[in-house]
Design brief:
11 helices; globular
Length: 233
């Protein structure tokens, strides 16, 4: 649920597809499938899911930001295609009322990648990567542990953004959870922040810890202060 730069708070912007996203998808899927109609249909599904009016953070701008990280760290990835497929599908199912979004997203990814004739071993890794976003735990079944660690750090990178982008992210997530009143949402968010701040590390890889860990902790501590102020008001 993360990105280097938070997307706009304007819902119309959130529903706009980044210009090169379809081209990235076509190039990725085209390495495994020559059925252009199928490739196009699957992208249209991705676009439809991520541009739902209920999406304010977990949208196409989030996907775009993670793909930018994929490009930046391409030299460190053992299987960049697995990571890219995981990026496209990791939040395709997103319902704040459910706790099984990740496994359901993984199931859709498996079906679509099988249809695209992506090799079974790659498809299985994509499934594991998406499922890992639920707990951010590394499973022994992963072939390239470093790739999964980077993917998870890409997904958490918003935590280490500058305060303006981080604050925008908090507002976007709050809008996604607008079904819950403040008296329920903010205590839950406070508990989440406290849990994260008690962890030894927020990020999996040394490079992300060096670049983003300190700033992420400052952001979360500042948000915690804001929430405590709201709860006392």
């Amino acid at each position: 649920m993360v990105t280097k730069k938070a997307s706009s708070l304007n819902p119309e912007h959130n529903r706009k597809t980044p210009d090169n996203l379809r081209a990235v998808w076509e190039q990725l899927a085209g390495r495994y499938c020559s059925d252009h109609e199928l490739i196009d249909r699957f992208f249209n599904e991705i676009e439809r899911k991520y541009t739902s009016s209920r999406r304010h953070y977990h949208n196409l701008q989030h996907i775009q930001a993670l793909l930018a990280f994929c490009e930046s760290y391409a030299g460190q990835l053992k299987d960049a295609d697995v990571v890219a497929f995981a990026v496209f599908y990791h939040d395709i199912i997103y319902n704040v009322l459910r706790k099984d979004n990740e496994p359901r997203s993984a199931q859709i990814a498996v079906k679509r990648l099988q249809a695209l004739t992506v090799p079974p071993e790659k498809t299985e890794q994509v499934k594991l990567y998406i499922e890992a976003t639920q707990t951010h735990a590394i499973t022994a079944s992963v072939t390239h542990t470093g790739d999964l660690q980077l993917f998870l750090d890409f997904d958490m990178s918003i935590l280490g953004a500058d305060w303006a982008a981080y604050e925008a992210y908090t507002h976007q997530v709050r809008r996604e959870y607008r079904i819950y009143p403040d008296k329920i949402y903010y205590p839950g968010r406070k508990q989440f922040l406290q849990h994260c701040l008690q962890a030894e590390h927020l990020f999996q890889t040394p490079v992300f810890r060096d670049r983003y860990e300190a700033r992420a902790r400052e952001n979360m501590a500042q948000e915690l202060e804001v929430i405590e102020g709201k709860l006392k008001a």
